[in-house]
Design a protein that fits this description.
Structural class of chain A: alpha+beta
Largest sheet of chain A: 8 strands, mixed
Radius of gyration of chain A: 32 Å
Largest sheet of chain B: none
Number of strands of chain A: 25
GO molecular function (chain B): ABC-type transporter activity
Strand content of chain A: 15-25%
Distance between the termini of chain A: 60 Å
Protein name (chain A): GldG family protein
InterPro entries (chain A): ABC_transp_unknown, DUF7088
Keywords (chain A): Membrane, Transmembrane, Transmembrane helix
Shape of chain B: globular
Oligomer: heterodimer
Distance between the termini of chain B: 21 Å
Number of helices of chain B: 13
Strand order of the largest sheet of chain A: 11-10-12-13-24-23-20-17
Keywords (chain B): Cell membrane, Membrane, Transmembrane, Transmembrane helix
Chain lengths: 493, 253
């Protein structure tokens, strides 16, 4: 072999050697990073761990059995700053969820941030699968298997007494995840047999199919119940809804309800139509509620919707109405009867009755509504506004240990129309119903996650001050420039 | 080790007396001052939930794009062009020591420049007392996280710059190549994710792209959440590029 060939061979050898070294190093670094993607940790250095999830949420996420998908629409760059800010908050929070739900390097929470205008297939899926309005900004869906739940804007923020904006995202997402990931859905019974509104009916005025769909989305199962046919209310009943009976319930049926409320710690949601005999006056009396046979008349234009319905915007402080008060929402009601705490009810320390919502101060409850004359307020027979349109009665059960434990809950509304198909999705009707259900089923107290301040601020600095500020910041580059010049002079010498 | 420190002090001295260093430093600081004041202006125009320091670090790529190529393009390309690299290789110093000394010298300068920006909030407070507190301009978690990210990502960017400098004799080519690679590394992932997700191979790449997305990591760090993933990513890749640069220097000297 000539000397030239030896050199050539050596060069080849070294070349291959180096290539192999580089290749091995790349593989090594790739492997380290591959491991790092699954075995990593995060540390929140902020005061009060502003960006960390509460221990409660983390505990729930660790116990997740089924994967949960969270879809959030990304607002376009042209959308208002508030929308982009909401998205920022959501993105930051959800990343922590994804991290906290990690198991064996894979997260049980799958995040999907969708740009509606670019990812058309995903946008279509949102519309078809989850029924989300495609033009809605910041649409949020939490889904697991067939179950899903939409988180509404008002659920995310609240303003506290100090007028500080609070972000309640963690509470909203954790409860939504719990709802959709729960294996056993709660069962709601809807009574039938007295001309009640039915969950499978699509009738715009007397159908409850919208409500039934809403229940299903939120991991509730519903079933109809004929009180006459069953010996007692089933044990698996989370709540019983009686939506507008057109004829009076028989004493035997009322007795079953009484037993359910008293002995089974039951939850009953009763919706009454005006001018219909419901046969439950005695039961209501025992629970401290009076639903007079009157019709609430609302003369104030301000509280009447364009379609002639009553707009209810007066709410009492209660967990059911808190969200409506905070976000200043209104509920669309149809013809209503008054439902108020019974002034003549027996004094009972265990029962608490709270009127929930009411009509305007100008309204009144008309006793002579069946007469064909012009309706006027009559001080002697009518009730003066504002008129309560719904009330809740809660009873605590005394134990042998001297403790009072929460027992049955009865919610009565003097209106059925607010749940009907044509009104369910209007105004804040859906939110009222959902809060009502959560309160009745004590789902609102499931979580004890404090909302966190958004941490907003605004600097008060004028334009001229900004100019002065910039000039002063230039001290530093100026100093570096002078130092450079001195070094230059020194070197020249 | 003695050779290494000798080389390191030499490199630091060369940077210290080079006019280019001061030009780069002044440009960097003027740009950063402008960015800082710009975000103070934004924070004064409407209510914000994002801290000024978070935005300030979000703009870190502007100086990186010109500073890193400017600082690194000379390091090896110039030595090779002048033939001094071959001379250096004949000394007892190894190629690794040569590369590492240059790397550390540039890195220290880079960190030093960024460190000077920490004075900004203090100047603001001096000029307009109360403003720092109003906008929490000295939020410890955000500053610590942000500077940690700058320090971490700096290792990779400078290693990358040195690598491009080792590939060619021309400073200009090295600088351009460095800029292009930095652009791909910093903005590329972001641009790729903005493509319609219908493209299959993009969806397949999604997870890896997410992992190397600079801005995702930066966002966490700049608000005070420290993640171990970028820690591994930047240091391991920096080590890889320093290693490859050493091999390249050895092979071409």
């Amino acid at each position: 072999m000539s000397r030239l060939d030896e050199f050539r061979a050596a060069r080849w050898f070294f070349g291959i050697n180096r290539s192999v070294q580089i290749l091995l190093a790349v593989i090594f670094v790739g492997a380290i990073n591959f491991i790092a993607t699954s075995q990593f940790s995060r540390h929140d250095m902020t005061e009060g761990n502003r960006f960390s999830l509460s221990p409660e949420t983390r505990a729930y996420l660790r116990s997740l059995e089924t994967p949960v998908r969270i879809v959030v629409t990304r607002p376009p760059d042209s959308s208002p700053q508030t929308s982009r800010m909401v998205f920022d908050h959501l993105e930051r929070l959800l990343k922590e969820y994804e991290y906290a739900a990690r198991r064996d390097g894979k997260s049980m929470i799958e995040l999907d941030f969708i740009s509606v205008f670019r990812q058309t297939d995903k946008a279509e899926e949102l519309v078809e699968k989850y029924g989300v309005n495609p033009e809605k900004e910041n649409a949020i869906i939490v889904a697991s298997g067939d179950r899903y739940r939409e988180i509404l804007g008002p659920e995310l923020y609240e303003v506290n007494d100090d007028m500080e904006n609070l972000f309640k995202g963690e509470e909203a997402f954790t409860s939504a995840i719990l709802e959709v990931a729960q294996e056993e859905p709660l069962k709601i019974y809807v009574t039938g047999g007295h001309g009640e509104m039915q969950p499978d009916s699509v009738d715009p005025l007397r159908g409850l199919s919208q409500m039934a769909g809403f229940l299903k989305q939120r991991n509730y199962n519903w079933s109809t119940l004929d009180l006459l046919r069953t010996p007692e209310i089933p044990e698996d009943a989370g709540a019983v809804i009686i939506p507008g009976p057109q004829t009076a319930l028989l004493p035997i049926e009322v007795q079953k309800l009484r037993k359910y409320l008293d002995e089974q710690n039951g939850r009953v949601i009763l919706l009454l139509d005006p001018a219909r005999d419901h046969g439950m006056d005695d039961l209501l009396y025992e629970w401290g509620i009076l639903a007079d046979d009157m019709l609430v008349l609302e003369p104030s234009e301000e509280f009447i919707a364009a379609g002639g319905d009553m707009l209810v915007s007066r709410f009492a402080e209660h967990p059911i109405t808190k969200l409506l008060i905070d976000s200043q929402q209104r509920v669309l009601f149809g013809l209503s009867r008054p439902v108020r705490p019974d002034p003549g009810a027996p004094i009972d320390g265990r029962t608490t009755v709270i009127p929930l919502l009411g009509s305007s101060p100008d309204s009144w409850a008309e006793r002579g509504y069946r007469q064909n004359t012009e309706q006027r307020f009559d001080k002697d027979s009518d009730l003066e506004g504002p008129i309560p349109l719904g009330a809740v009665s809660e009873r605590s059960a005394a134990t042998g240990l001297g403790l009072d434990l929460p027992s049955g809950k009865l919610v009565v509304f003097g209106n059925t129309a607010f749940l009907s198909n044509n009104r369910f999705n209007s105004a804040a009707n859906k939110i009222l119903f959902y809060n009502l259900l959560n309160w009745a089923l004590e789902r609102d107290s499931l979580l004890n996650i404090a909302p966190r301040p958004v941490g907003e601020y605004q600097l008060t600095v004028s334009r001229s001050e900004l100019g002065g500020l910039f000039l002063r910041l230039l001290w530093i580059p100026g100093g570096v420039a002078i130092l450079g010049f001195l070094v230059y002079l020194f070197r020249r010498q | 080790m003695r050779h290494f420190f000798h080389l390191l002090f030499h490199e630091i001295r060369m940077l210290w007396i080079s006019p280019a260093t001061y030009v780069a430093g002044v440009l960097f600081l003027v740009l950063m001052a402008f960015i800082y004041v710009f975000y103070i202006y934004i924070a004064s125009s409407e209510i914000q939930a994002t801290l000024v320091s978070e935005w300030f670090f979000q703009a870190f790529f502007w100086p990186v794009f010109f500073m890193v190529p400017l600082l690194t393009m000379r390091s090896l390309a110039e030595e090779r062009r002048l033939g001094t690299l071959e001379t250096l290789m004949t000394t007892p110093a190894t190629a690794f020591q040569i590369v590492l000394s240059k790397f550390i010298a540039i890195y220290l300068f880079y960190i030093g420049m960024w460190g000077l920006t920490l004075i900004f909030p203090f100047i603001v407070e001096y000029y307009r007392p109360g403003l720092v507190e109003e906008g929490r301009l000295l939020d410890k978690a955000s500053l610590l996280g942000g500077y940690l990210f700058v320090a971490l990502s700096g290792t990779l960017y400078i290693a990358l710059g040195m690598f491009t400098s080792s590939l060619t004799r021309s400073q200009l080519v090295a600088g351009m190549l460095c800029f292009s690679l930095l652009f791909i590394l910093i903005v590329g992932g972001q641009l790729l994710m903005k493509q319609p997700a219908d493209v299959q191979w993009l969806a397949w790449l999604g997870e890896s792209v997410q992992y190397i997305q600079t801005f995702k990591h930066l966002e966490d760090f700049s608000r005070g959440v420290i993640d171990t993933r970028p820690l591994i990513l930047y240091t391991s890749c920096a080590a890889l590029f320093v290693g490859i640069t050493t091999i390249t220097v050895e092979s071409k000297a």
